[in-house]
Write a structure and sequence with these properties.
The complex is a heterodimer of chains A (225) and B (593). By secondary structure, chain A is α/β, with parallel strands linked by helices. Chain A has a single domain, classed as Rossmann fold. Chain A contains 9 helices and 8 strands. In chain A, the strands form 2 sheets. A 6-stranded parallel β-sheet of chain A has the order 3-2-1-6-7-8. In chain A, strands 4-5 form a two-stranded antiparallel ribbon. Chain A is globular and about 50 Å long. Chain B has 593 residues and is of the alpha/beta class. Chain B has 2 domains: 446 residues, Rossmann fold; 81 residues, no CATH class. A 7-stranded parallel β-sheet of chain B has the order 4-3-2-5-6-8-12, sandwiched between helices. In chain B, α2 links the parallel β2 and β3. In chain B, α2 packs across α13 and α7 packs parallel to α11. Classes of the chains: A alpha/beta (225), B alpha/beta (593). The interface between A and B is medium-sized, with 12 and 13 residues.
């Protein structure tokens, strides 16, 4: 058997990284060009927070769309540089060692390690250099037109409940045997992903995923500090 | 599309005379050609003697200490001296003098016989210099270069000018040259204008020695000394201050006259006025097959050669970028206006390509080397990138917590000219505050404190004035005029050697600005604003030219004109720059080469 035809899918937020999308968006919004603009954009992120908390239990697409509206009209330069700064100065210190261990182990077992992140590419790509033990990174992408963010996220949105549907497509594209593949999820919207592989695992699950994991008898991993 | 152009093949065995080698552009060009065109014949480097140093000494010192030659030192190591001696001959002379001031007729005859190409990089790059110096270096220098070329058996002249000779106008600027051009559209006869402006300058100099002018200068001197608490009875001090005042008054009058003439015909400043005259002079003196104009736009830090970020002196838009790293935040600029920056190594590659085309007789009369036509950078984007680059530095390397936490987030922005926080408005508020502090009725114990605050406000007003001058200086380029410089002539033939391709589409502005250009300025140029010395360079092997061969004359040429001061290329560069400290009073100086 080819050692590359199984994969280990990792949801980044909550498993490999201790910070989520809201914090990243707030950071970028708070560093917009003008002072008034900063307040306005932060306000938008604040508005998206409850949507993220409540509606995002099963599907975070709306929350992600709302929160990234705060980027609308920001220059691609600013988003890129602030993202890199956020990844280097803040997120790098929030990498969870236990998550990295899981990735390392999965890679040692011969799985193709695929990271799934709700974060945007400009943040996740510089961060991925520090995560190392992975083969692929799938994350969200902001739309830019004429050098400015439109505030829209490009499809498919990672974090949406429908996000698991691309799994079949990804598996056929990379010749992956899903029945022998592993997935690590931590939030409600990861259920489709976990249900799609032979070896699902919930890591530090939120309320929704914990309940489903128990019902489906999926293993649950809890990190200890 | 023309047949492919091979730089190595074209320059093989060709002899080139370079002027302005001590300037930013000249140095990088020389280093690049010596490094990348090993097949070239001889490069004759024309240098002036300066400050009791012979041209040869200056050249040797330049190669031994300028970081621009680091790649060459790295390549040749201990054999650098022999390599340079085999490729370069230093010629002591001065572009502002007829026949370049060469003293040795045999040397002149040899150059006339052997030269294939003259690259004239020499130029006075201050925006508003003493009118006589601008005419001497830029116009007479071009005239002398053209005359020298005409006397050569086969040499052709590649003259470095600037895109901004187009003056105050809007829109697309084609690669063309009209010797009778003036931006205002008024008829312009360069010879008549040259005679006229020379006479005007002479008249100002003569009037400067009149009894009335002497009396006015003395009056100003006394006022100045009294305001500084100096004793006018001190004869030596009085004489010294008077001399300085007279010199400054003369310079101011000459600058005013130059600015008046430049503005009258529609140029931004004395620099672009004199450079345009230089183009016209060459076009009139030489047949079309003997010359090309090379017009760079705003020449900035190296992208790659000699190494990323290399820069020199008070150049180009350095003062503006320095200014935007402080508390000054609202820069008047028109959103969407092109900011036509081009890295110096791209310019040097373009200069090599234009030179090769000229050698082959496949040349265009004008080569514009900018980025606005092919990879547009707008002024608002440049300002935002500047703010982000400062942020990146200050967050980690700010001297104080205030810099690290607040100033790093104090982004500069583009504003309208009449913004509430525009410089004139800030000045008027500060003046109001100062007057109030001085006039307010306050108890005696508070008076001293209020006076101290008023003095501090006065100091702040000096800074505001400097900023105001600088903003004024840049206004035509970042606010008033919208230029797109067509840059096509450099790309009509594919260049065989990739290291000489100069298409600005390969520039990633974000990475260049934030990771290369601004850090380069911070390292090489900002220290000069802070009265510090930029890092020095010492080659791994001490550099010395072998002294066995024939040496150029160590006696300087004899100046034959009124003003021997000439060809200032040490910080030389073409474009938008203020060659002055932000905190000094000479913020009206800027450079363009």
């Amino acid at each position: 058997m080819n050692h590359r035809n199984t994969a280990a899918f990792f949801r980044v937020e909550g498993i490999v990284l201790g910070r989520g999308v809201l914090a990243a968006s707030a950071y970028i919004a708070a560093n917009a060009k003008k002072f008034g603009e900063r307040a306005l954009r932060l306000g938008l992120v604040a508005l998206a927070a409850p949507v993220h908390s409540f509606l995002g239990q099963t599907d975070r697409a709306l929350a992600h769309r709302l929160v990234h509206l705060a980027f609308r009209g920001m220059s691609e330069d600013r988003v890129a540089i602030l993202s890199e700064e956020y990844a280097e100065d803040i997120l790098k210190g929030k990498i969870l060692d236990q998550g990295v261990e899981l990735m390392k182990r999965a890679q040692a077992e011969g799985h193709r390690v695929v990271l799934l992140s709700e974060g945007i590419a400009s943040i996740m790509k510089p961060l991925a250099q520090h995560l190392r033990h992975h083969d692929d990174l799938l994350c969200n992408h902001l739309e830019f037109r004429d050098g400015e963010a439109t505030g829209r996220l490009l499809e498919p949105i990672i974090g949406a409940a429908s996000g698991g549907r691309w799994l079949q497509h990804y598996a056929s594209e990379h010749d992956i045997d899903l029945a022998h593949s592993v997935a690590y999820g931590s939030h409600g919207p990861d259920m489709l992903l976990l249900a799609g592989v032979g070896k699902p695992c919930a890591v530090n699950p939120d309320f929704v995923l914990r309940r489903s994991a128990r019902d489906a008898d999926w293993p649950i991993i809890e990190y200890r500090d | 599309m023309q047949p492919a152009l091979s730089i190595q093949h074209t320059f093989a065995g060709r002899n080139v005379l370079l002027t302005g080698a001590s300037g930013f552009l000249g140095k990088v060009w020389l280093a690049m050609v010596l490094h990348r065109v090993p097949t070239i014949g001889k490069i004759y480097v024309l240098l002036r003697p300066k400050a009791l140093r012979s041209a040869l000494d200056r050249f040797e010192r330049m190669l031994a200490s300028s970081p621009a030659f680091k790649p060459l030192h790295d390549l040749h190591g201990a054999a650098m001296g022999e390599f340079i001696a085999s490729r370069v001959e230093v010629v002591e002379g001065d572009v502002s003098l007829p026949e370049f001031g060469l003293k040795d007729p045999e040397q002149a005859a040899r150059l006339h016989r052997d030269l294939d190409l003259i690259v004239n990089c020499a130029g006075l790059v201050d925006f508003d210099p003493d009118l006589r110096e601008a005419l001497s270096t830029n116009v007479d220098g071009a005239r002398n270069a053209a005359a020298f070329t005409a006397r050569c058996a086969r040499a052709r002249l590649l003259h470095v000018s600037t895109c901004y000779v187009t003056g105050l106008r809007q829109g697309t600027v084609e690669e063309s040259l009209d010797p009778g051009y003036s931006p205002s559209g008024d008829p312009f006869d360069v010879e008549a204008e040259h005679a006229d402006v020379t006479a005007a300058a002479a008249q100002i100099v003569a009037a400067h020695d009149s009894p009335a002018a002497e009396a006015a200068a003395l009056e100003e001197t006394l006022t100045q000394m009294r305001s500084k608490g100096q004793d006018p009875a001190n004869a030596m001090l009085l004489r010294n201050v008077l001399r300085r005042v007279k010199r400054q008054r003369l310079k101011d009058e000459l600058i005013n006259e130059g600015q008046r003439r430049a503005k009258q015909y529609g140029w931004h400043n004395i620099y672009t006025y004199s450079k345009s005259m230089a183009e016209a002079v060459i076009a009139r003196m030489l047949p079309a097959d003997r010359w090309s104009m090379f017009r760079p736009a705003i020449v900035e830090s190296a992208a790659e050669y000699p190494f990323p970020g290399w820069n020199q002196g008070f150049n180009t838009c350095t003062p503006l970028i320095y200014l935007l790293g402080g508390w000054f935040r609202h820069l008047p600029a028109r959103i969407g206006n092109p900011f036509d920056v081009i890295p110096v190594d791209y310019v040097c590659r373009g200069l090599v390509v234009a030179g090769a085309s000229l050698l082959l007789g496949r040349h265009s009369p004008v080569y514009q080397c900018g980025s606005s036509d092919r990879n547009l950078l707008t002024i608002d984007r440049a300002i935002e990138l500047t703010a982000l680059a400062h942020r990146k530095h200050l967050r980690n390397h700010g001297d104080t917590a205030l810099e690290r936490v607040v100033l790093s987030r104090w982004d500069a922005i583009t504003t309208d000219i009449d913004h509430l926080l525009s410089v004139p408005n800030i000045r008027s508020a500060a003046e109001g505050l100062r007057d109030w502090l001085r006039d307010v009725k306050a108890p005696k114990f508070m008076r001293t404190t209020l006076d101290e605050w008023a003095d501090k406000t006065d100091d702040a007003l000096d800074t505001v004035d400097t900023i105001d001058k600088m903003v004024d200086l840049y206004q035509p380029f970042v606010h008033d005029n919208h230029y797109i410089f067509v840059s096509q002539a450099l790309f009509v033939a594919e260049v065989v050697e990739p290291e000489f391709r100069c298409d600005p589409r390969s520039i990633d502005w974000r990475s260049y600005w934030v990771d290369t250009h601004v850090p380069g300025l911070r390292k090489w140029c900002f220290p000069l604003f802070e009265n510090k010395t930029p890092p020095g360079y010492t080659p791994p092997h001490p550099f010395k030219l072998p002294r066995t061969g024939p040496q150029p004359s160590t006696t300087g040429p004899q100046p034959t004109r009124l003003e021997p001061r000439s060809a200032h290329t040490d910080s030389g560069r073409t474009i938008l720059g203020v060659s002055a400290s932000v905190t000094s009073s000479s913020a009206s100086r800027a450079e363009v080469l």
